[in-house]
Amino acid sequence: MAEPDPLLERFKRLAGTLDPDDVPELDDKLATARAYLAPYIEGYEVPQPILDDCVLNVALDLWQSKDARNGIVAVTETGVEPYRISSDRCGARGRNCGRRHPAGMGIA
Hints:
By secondary structure, the protein is mostly helical.
């Protein structure tokens, strides 16, 4: 049996689930987050706390993409389905605009 991801316990608390049935999917989200980040950090020395924070944030975004937070749904021909709005207001545009937009500024 593979060792659990060292960030799994922190991730479970951040994701707000203690359900043992969610553990395989949570572990999968951590592995996917690491895979997304790997090409961008290859060859660089990234301090472990920063890397852990990045992995947790990407994994949490992947985890939360599974449902419609705040009851947001899309109406389709066959009914309604969850519609997700990313918590990263700049990610959808493919760039990091955190320096240009101060924290607390609402989505316009």
